[in-house]
Amino acid sequence: MRKTLIAGNWKMNGRKAMAVELCSDIVKGFSELKGIDVAICPPFTLLDTVHEAIADSACMLGAQDMDLHDDGAYTGQVSAGMLKDCGCELVILGHSERRTLYGETDRSVTDKTEVALKNGIRPIVCVGETREEREGGQVESVVAGQLRSVIDGVGIDSFADVIIAYEPVWAIGTGLTATPEQAQTMHAFIRNLLADRDRETASACRLLYGGSMKADNAADLLGCPDIDGGLIGGASLAAEDFLGICKAA
Ligand code: PGA
Which of 104, 167, 187, 200 is catalytic? Predict the structure, then answer.
């Protein structure tokens, strides 16, 4: 049985006071919920603050990216070892904003996935097509290409510890959500792709949906058989919205 995971991606938002308040509200609300996993992925500057704020709860801490090198002369970068040291259990890799704005490639996502796993951090690997790619009928080939790169690089057995987030780029931060049918079709496609390599791993792997998931559309999306949780951007910045999604799960 796959346990639902609701992960908040704060992106480049937040200050210390806001983080403490938001986490305290989330922890309070989360303590009344059972049977789901919840993770908070703040910017690097707030990892410590959030770690402390969720310390007495079952909430997990995640980062939004990391470098693929071990510690060393890489000015401005943050290593997997540093994330581990801050208490991170998860790291988002290959988010579409990293791919489009910062030159992240399938190759670097694959390398980072390998490094995260080696350091005992579970990667949330993001895949998804742009609007042009969807309109051009390339949805499956784009997503398959992004995913196969990682499967070929780290091996299907490692997917016991990999979480995948399907995030159609046209739905991220736009208020346009994939319909439950569109999302389920892609999640089933992704699971089949994994099953081509190993059935058991495929049926155990958690597949999250991301892209304008909100409290009022979460139940329909999370009710789909192959959707095992959500990666939440905008709605993770207000406790009521985030907890609304957790409750729907
Ligand atoms: P959104 O972002 O919920 O604001 O659409 C999701 C994400 O980018 O992970």
Answer: 167
96 neighbors 128 (Cβ within 8 angstroms): yes
Is residue 75 helix, strand or coil? coil
167 in catalytic set: yes
Measuring from atom 1 of ligand 1, which residue has the nearest CA? 233
Residue ranges in the chain modelled with pLDDT below 70: none
Q: Supply φ then ψ for residue 31, to 5 degrees.
A: -65, -20
Residue with tokens 């690097």: 44
234 lines ligand 1 (CB under 6 A): yes
Q: pTM for the complete prediction?
A: 0.98
Enumerate the β-bridge partners of residue 164.
Answer: 125, 207
Between CA 155 and CA 242 the distance in angstroms is 34
pLDDT recorded at residue 160: 94
Residue among 10, 130, 212 to mutate when testing ligand 1 (max atoms within 8 A of CB): 212
**What local confidence, expressed as pLDDT, does residue 34 receive?**
87
Catalytic entry in 95, 104, 129, 133: 95
Q: Return the best residue to mutate from 98, 172, 208 for the ligand 1 pocket (most ligand atoms within 8 A of CB).
A: 172
> What digits encode the pLDDT tens for the residues 134-186?
999 999 999 999 999 999 999 999 999 999 999 999 999 998 899 999 999 99
Residue 193: half-sphere exposure toward Cβ, Cα within 13 Å: 23
Contact 73, 116 (CB under 8 A): no
Q: SS3 of 248, please?
A: helix
In contact, 10 and 30? CB cutoff 8 Å: no
CA 35 → CA 188, 201, 220, 229, distances in Å?
Answer: 23, 21, 18, 12
